[in-house]
Amino acid sequence: MPATALQCVNLNIFVYAGGMKTLLRTGLIGFVILLGITPVMAEIYKWTDEYGRIHFTDSPPEGSNSKPVDIGPINTYDAPSKILIDETLSRSTGLPVNKDKVIVYSTTWCGVCTTAKRWLRANKINFREYDVEKSSKGKRDYKRLKGRGVPIIMVGKQRMNGFSTSRMTQMLRNAGHKI
User: What percent of the chain has pLDDT over 90?
Assistant: First the structure.
Protein backbone atom coordinates (compact mmCIF):
# COMPACT_ATOMS: atom_id res chain seq x y z
CA MET A 1 0.00 0.00 0.00
CA PRO A 2 1.51 3.33 -1.03
CA ALA A 3 2.21 5.95 1.67
CA THR A 4 -0.18 8.86 1.85
CA ALA A 5 0.96 12.47 1.89
CA LEU A 6 0.10 12.73 5.59
CA GLN A 7 2.23 9.71 6.44
CA CYS A 8 5.15 11.22 4.49
CA VAL A 9 4.82 14.49 6.36
CA ASN A 10 4.74 12.64 9.71
CA LEU A 11 7.81 10.65 8.71
CA ASN A 12 9.67 13.85 7.75
CA ILE A 13 8.74 15.51 11.04
CA PHE A 14 9.96 12.44 12.95
CA VAL A 15 13.26 12.41 11.05
CA TYR A 16 13.64 16.20 11.54
CA ALA A 17 12.92 15.93 15.30
CA GLY A 18 15.48 13.14 15.63
CA GLY A 19 18.05 15.24 13.79
CA MET A 20 17.25 18.18 16.04
CA LYS A 21 17.90 16.08 19.16
CA THR A 22 21.26 15.01 17.75
CA LEU A 23 22.08 18.61 16.83
CA LEU A 24 21.17 19.86 20.32
CA ARG A 25 23.14 17.06 21.98
CA THR A 26 26.20 17.81 19.82
CA GLY A 27 25.86 21.54 20.48
CA LEU A 28 25.62 20.98 24.22
CA ILE A 29 28.71 18.77 24.24
CA GLY A 30 30.60 21.36 22.20
CA PHE A 31 29.54 24.12 24.59
CA VAL A 32 30.76 22.15 27.61
CA ILE A 33 34.10 21.53 25.88
CA LEU A 34 34.44 25.24 25.12
CA LEU A 35 33.79 26.09 28.75
CA GLY A 36 36.62 23.78 29.76
CA ILE A 37 39.02 25.34 27.25
CA THR A 38 38.15 28.99 27.92
CA PRO A 39 40.38 29.49 31.00
CA VAL A 40 43.38 28.19 29.04
CA MET A 41 42.68 30.59 26.17
CA ALA A 42 42.21 33.59 28.46
CA GLU A 43 45.91 34.30 28.88
CA ILE A 44 47.49 37.44 27.44
CA TYR A 45 51.03 37.34 26.08
CA LYS A 46 53.45 40.23 25.69
CA TRP A 47 56.11 40.03 22.99
CA THR A 48 58.37 42.32 20.98
CA ASP A 49 58.71 42.11 17.21
CA GLU A 50 61.91 42.57 15.16
CA TYR A 51 61.30 46.36 15.02
CA GLY A 52 61.13 46.70 18.80
CA ARG A 53 57.35 47.22 18.94
CA ILE A 54 55.56 45.64 21.89
CA HIS A 55 52.49 43.52 21.15
CA PHE A 56 49.83 41.92 23.34
CA THR A 57 48.02 38.86 22.00
CA ASP A 58 45.97 35.95 23.27
CA SER A 59 48.41 33.38 21.88
CA PRO A 60 52.19 33.51 21.76
CA PRO A 61 53.67 33.74 18.25
CA GLU A 62 55.93 30.88 17.29
CA GLY A 63 59.63 31.41 17.84
CA SER A 64 59.26 34.48 20.06
CA ASN A 65 60.25 35.15 23.62
CA SER A 66 56.71 35.99 24.74
CA LYS A 67 55.77 36.20 28.39
CA PRO A 68 52.33 35.70 29.96
CA VAL A 69 50.94 38.93 31.43
CA ASP A 70 49.15 38.88 34.77
CA ILE A 71 46.20 41.22 34.26
CA GLY A 72 44.49 40.55 37.58
CA PRO A 73 40.72 40.39 37.98
CA ILE A 74 38.62 41.56 35.05
CA ASN A 75 35.24 43.27 35.13
CA THR A 76 35.28 43.90 38.84
CA TYR A 77 33.95 46.80 40.82
CA ASP A 78 35.62 47.97 43.98
CA ALA A 79 33.24 49.74 46.30
CA PRO A 80 34.44 53.00 47.79
CA SER A 81 36.56 52.40 50.82
CA LYS A 82 34.96 52.89 54.20
CA ILE A 83 35.24 56.51 55.13
CA LEU A 84 36.27 57.38 58.63
CA ILE A 85 33.49 59.85 59.25
CA ASP A 86 34.97 61.38 62.38
CA GLU A 87 38.25 62.14 60.59
CA THR A 88 36.45 63.55 57.55
CA LEU A 89 34.23 65.85 59.53
CA SER A 90 36.82 66.89 62.10
CA ARG A 91 39.15 67.93 59.26
CA SER A 92 36.56 70.39 57.99
CA THR A 93 35.47 71.70 61.40
CA GLY A 94 38.64 71.24 63.41
CA LEU A 95 36.51 69.74 66.20
CA PRO A 96 36.02 66.11 67.23
CA VAL A 97 32.69 64.58 66.26
CA ASN A 98 30.14 64.37 69.05
CA LYS A 99 28.56 60.95 69.35
CA ASP A 100 25.04 62.43 69.42
CA LYS A 101 25.48 65.34 67.00
CA VAL A 102 23.06 65.27 64.05
CA ILE A 103 24.04 66.79 60.69
CA VAL A 104 21.79 66.87 57.61
CA TYR A 105 23.31 67.42 54.16
CA SER A 106 20.48 68.49 51.89
CA THR A 107 19.27 70.74 49.07
CA THR A 108 16.37 73.19 48.86
CA TRP A 109 14.54 71.21 46.16
CA CYS A 110 14.70 67.80 47.89
CA GLY A 111 11.33 66.61 49.23
CA VAL A 112 12.86 63.74 51.24
CA CYS A 113 15.22 66.26 52.89
CA THR A 114 12.22 68.38 53.91
CA THR A 115 10.46 65.31 55.33
CA ALA A 116 13.57 64.34 57.32
CA LYS A 117 14.04 67.85 58.75
CA ARG A 118 10.33 68.09 59.62
CA TRP A 119 10.55 64.72 61.44
CA LEU A 120 13.66 65.80 63.39
CA ARG A 121 11.97 69.07 64.46
CA ALA A 122 8.74 67.24 65.45
CA ASN A 123 10.82 64.92 67.66
CA LYS A 124 12.74 67.87 69.14
CA ILE A 125 16.11 66.69 67.81
CA ASN A 126 18.63 69.49 67.37
CA PHE A 127 20.49 69.25 64.07
CA ARG A 128 22.77 71.26 61.87
CA GLU A 129 21.93 71.54 58.18
CA TYR A 130 24.29 72.15 55.27
CA ASP A 131 23.06 72.77 51.73
CA VAL A 132 25.35 70.77 49.42
CA GLU A 133 24.73 73.17 46.53
CA LYS A 134 24.95 76.56 48.26
CA SER A 135 27.21 76.11 51.29
CA SER A 136 30.97 75.75 50.73
CA LYS A 137 31.21 73.53 53.83
CA GLY A 138 28.25 71.49 52.60
CA LYS A 139 29.90 71.01 49.19
CA ARG A 140 33.24 70.12 50.76
CA ASP A 141 31.78 67.59 53.24
CA TYR A 142 29.49 66.09 50.59
CA LYS A 143 32.51 65.46 48.38
CA ARG A 144 34.52 63.95 51.26
CA LEU A 145 31.56 61.71 52.12
CA LYS A 146 31.44 60.61 48.45
CA GLY A 147 27.79 61.67 48.34
CA ARG A 148 25.62 60.35 45.52
CA GLY A 149 22.28 61.79 46.60
CA VAL A 150 20.54 63.72 49.33
CA PRO A 151 19.83 63.72 52.14
CA ILE A 152 22.88 62.35 53.90
CA ILE A 153 22.18 62.32 57.61
CA MET A 154 24.98 61.86 60.13
CA VAL A 155 24.32 60.95 63.75
CA GLY A 156 27.82 60.98 65.22
CA LYS A 157 29.70 58.35 63.16
CA GLN A 158 26.52 56.71 61.84
CA ARG A 159 25.42 57.56 58.31
CA MET A 160 22.09 57.30 56.54
CA ASN A 161 21.60 57.97 52.82
CA GLY A 162 17.99 59.00 52.25
CA PHE A 163 15.51 58.93 55.12
CA SER A 164 13.68 56.25 57.05
CA THR A 165 11.90 57.00 60.33
CA SER A 166 12.68 53.55 61.75
CA ARG A 167 16.36 53.75 60.81
CA MET A 168 16.60 57.33 62.12
CA THR A 169 15.02 56.26 65.42
CA GLN A 170 17.51 53.40 65.70
CA MET A 171 20.49 55.67 64.93
CA LEU A 172 19.36 58.27 67.47
CA ARG A 173 18.86 55.62 70.18
CA ASN A 174 22.31 54.17 69.42
CA ALA A 175 23.73 57.66 69.95
CA GLY A 176 21.99 58.06 73.31
CA HIS A 177 19.04 60.26 72.29
CA LYS A 178 15.76 59.71 74.14
CA ILE A 179 13.19 59.03 71.45
Answer: 40
Helix axes 165-174, 111-122, angle to 10 degrees: 50
Write the pLDDT tens digit of every residue in 101-114: 999 999 999 999 99
Does a cis peptide bond (omega within 30 degrees of 0) precede residue 73?
Answer: no
138 vs 33 pLDDT, higher one: 138
* CA trace torsion 8, 14, 16, 17 (10° rounding): 160
Instruction: Give first-to-last CA distance, the chain, whole Å.
Output: 94
Going by C-alpha positions, the residue among 121, 131, 125 that lies closest to residue 102 is 125
pTM summary value: 0.48
| Residue 149 near residue 78 (C-beta atoms within 8 A) | no
| CA distances in angstroms from 155 to 91, 106, 170, listed in the order given | 17, 15, 10
